[in-house]
Amino acid sequence: MSAEYLFYWSMAATGLGLILIGLWGVLTRKHILRIALAFTLADTGVNLILVWSGFLPGRSAPIVDSSVTQMVDPLPQALVLTSIVIGVAVAALFVVVGVLASRKSGSADIRHMKELKW
Amino acid sequence: MSFTFILAHVLTGLGALFLFASGVGVFRMPDVFNKMHAGTKATTLGSILFLSGLGLFEPSWLPKLLLVAVFIVLTNPVSSHALARAAHNDASEKPDNLVIDDLEESKGEEQ
Amino acid sequence: MIRTIVGLAIVLILMAILITVVDDYTVPSALSGVGESYTETGVEDTGSVNLVTAVVVAYRGLDTLGEVVVLFSASTAVVLILTLIPIGSGPTPPSSIVSFTAGILPSAIILFGIYIITHGHLSPGGGFPGGAVVASAFLLVMLGSNTVPGKSKFLSSIESLAGLTFGLLGFWGMFAAGQFLNNLVLPAGSPGRIISAGIIPLISLAIGAKVASELSGIFSSYRKAGGEK
Amino acid sequence: MSNTFMVILFVLIGGGLFLAFLRLILGTKATDRAVALDTTTLITTGFLVLVAFLQGRSMLLDVALVYSVLSFLGVLAVARYLDGGLR
Amino acid sequence: MNMSLFAAASIGTGVMMIVAAVAALIVKKLISAIIIVGFVSLSASLLFLLMDAPDVAITEASIGAAISTVIFLWGRGKIGGEQ
Amino acid sequence: MKRAPAVVSTSVILMGIWLSLTLSTDIQEIVLGVVVSVIAAIATNGALTGNLFRLLKPRKFIAAISYIFYFLGQMIKANIDVLFRVFRPVIPLNPGIVKVNLNLKSERAKVIVANSITLTPGTITIDIAGDHIFVHWIFLPDGDVHAETQSMVDGFAGRLEKIFE
Fold first, then answer.
1. Total count of domains within chain A
2. Which domain holds residue C177?
3. What is the tens place of the pLDDT at every residue in E61-70?
């Protein structure tokens, strides 16, 4: 149980935990905005896992400098960078559609949004 | 052990102590206005001391750290004031342990 | 109740699967092949000191263009749907302290956002976070007032111009160097200065303007749907 | 900076952060939570600067700057919402 | 030495994030949940910095702190709370 | 052209911010910084600082410096107060909101006073309405509460009046 080991795995555990909690929230909550919040949490967890997949403890950030010799993988970070901005646009869309649906059905509870069922 | 070195230690230590005190205050104080007393004053001075102390350890960073500190001094009281006003305006959020409340009276006069 | 139990069961099953997947995984000691080659040759290839920006803008520039299109369609959808929602009762006016602060701070925040955008190839940052910071300045203006902004021709023209710039820079690379979004149609310069890394700063500016105008457009249409008191 | 001093700084800042976090989770009213959010973000700004210092790279300070400016905006947004300014 | 401090910091932040995520889903008022999710986003930014990803940290801070909070608050204002 | 001094002083301040952001004296950085800060100052009409040239008279400059030191002294006092308060087993509390006058014309001066009060011993500003300011005390002072609060507010307002006249 070296410090490196704990450092590396705590990140993965956090990301995984957030994904699972977000999934649980999406499955069990009833208020539409609560589901959107759970979705955002799962999104954060996925981003953490993606960045973690390119992370090596003891190396430095991928910005070249005279003092830097070994760097972490820049590719997952680049993917996550775009994913975060997309995430907020999708969350905005989620909220707006939720507001519209709750206006149509008269309640924010998803059990009352019958017309969205197929 | 130069003077700057000792001063840097003292400033960072005091700053961290004030940040800790703000956490304790926010945790222990009973209502929202009193929480705000701890959460605003102690974090502001704590951040200034902590950042300038670290700036003495690494003098080339000092301008940027002071910029962060100035931003905190400018913005922290404003957000705290906005929260206080919101807490007072909202009936369900307002604490009930106030000895004197002139603001409530002047609101009553307006209506 | 049954929903909670079923949800918990599904989550637990998924957790067991994930744990078995990562069970025999150890802390790696080297990067994957792609990452290794990016870190080794990134600076010579693109001239950008910040390798993440190099990947976002140069190596994977086409993906970023698609991503900007996704952002554009999402924000267009938001603005369209917002017109279907009935207009509300309008916000209350802020206190004079908040409105004064919201009047003075935006110039500093915009300067800061432009710093993040233009130094994307030198320090952490780039078009996406810088654009978000510039949009936050707009958000601060919105929080410090209770009026509805006028019809923003300026915002939409900035938005179109930024998208057009991105596309044209890409085609310039295609015609001059035979590759869409070729980075080195401009000289790479000496790494570590502002004018270096080919067209990366220009594309960062385009992305920043695009992101800032999209997010500001979302905020301004929220405010319009809120109505006026 | 000696190791002992660094540990002391970590313990003090982490302790403050944890206590403010507890108030964020337990706080009975929404404004209590908002005050706790304000405090946690400011303590975390200090923490970010400390991390940048330990890694010895001045460019990481940009993160702390963005963090402090935008966390102010987040708290202000919550306050304005509670005040009826975001309708 | 740095490594063990960073390990402690990442474990502490991770525990806080998990607890806050659960709290955000079970807390009564939606406005409290929005505030707590804002905290989770900001802590994620700290974790990204510890994972040597300053670009991602800056983006997460700039998006998660103000912009997504405002979007959710607006939706809360338009829909109304639970019950 | 009435705003020209304000625009010039704002761009100077923004240039200072830019230099401390970049931590570099490369000629390209400086040229870009001048361009960006002038554009930002013109676009926001010099709102960041207002006209700073008025402060260049020696009397006002000294007043500004003395205000800063007075404020820093009060702030350190406030923090020692908070420090000793939060670690007591039972926190001494006697809270109340007091309304006092604030006779300042300039909006900027009012905001500075309100923010200073928030950062100094035992008080935060709750609201400003017209010429009145509402102050929350964590522990109400002995004797006449309104007179005490008025003298505390005037401590700031009187010093600021010298600068903003």
1. 1
2. 50-224
3. 888 888 888 8
Evaluate whether F118 touches F124 at the Cβ level (below 8 Å).
yes
Instruction: For residue A33, give how far its alpha carbon lies from the nearest alpha carbon of chain C (Å).
Output: 16
* F156: closest CA of chain B, how far (Å): 16
Q: How far is CA F139 from CA B34, F74, F125, in A?
A: 10, 16, 14
CB < 8 Å to A63, chain D: 57, 59
Domain that holds residue E65: 3-79
CATH code for position A30: 1.10.287.3510
Nearest-CA distance from E81 to chain C in Å? Answer: 16
Rounded distance between C-alpha atoms, residue A91 and residue C86, angstroms = 21
Q: Which residue of D lies nearest to C112 if distances are taken between CA atoms? A: D66
Q: Is A1 among the domain residues?
A: no
For residue F130, what are the contacts with CB-CB under 8 A and spacing of at least 6? none
Encode pLDDT of A5-64 as tens digits: 888 888 888 988 999 999 888 888 888 888 999 999 999 999 998 888 888 877 877 877
Residues of chain C with Cβ-Cβ distance to B40 below 8 Å are none
* ipTM of the complex model: 0.91
- Contact call for F86 and B61, based on CB within 8 A: no
Measured between beta carbons, the chain D residues lying within 8 angstroms of B64 are 58, 61, 65
**What is the reported pTM?**
0.91
C121: closest chain E residue by CA: E55
Residue A64 belongs to some domain of the structure: no
Q: Quickly list DSSP for E15-46.
A: HHHHHHHHHHHH-S-HHHHHHHHHHHHHHHHH
Q: What is the pLDDT of residue B108?
A: 64
Give the whole-angstrom CA distance, residue F13 versus residue C26.
Answer: 52
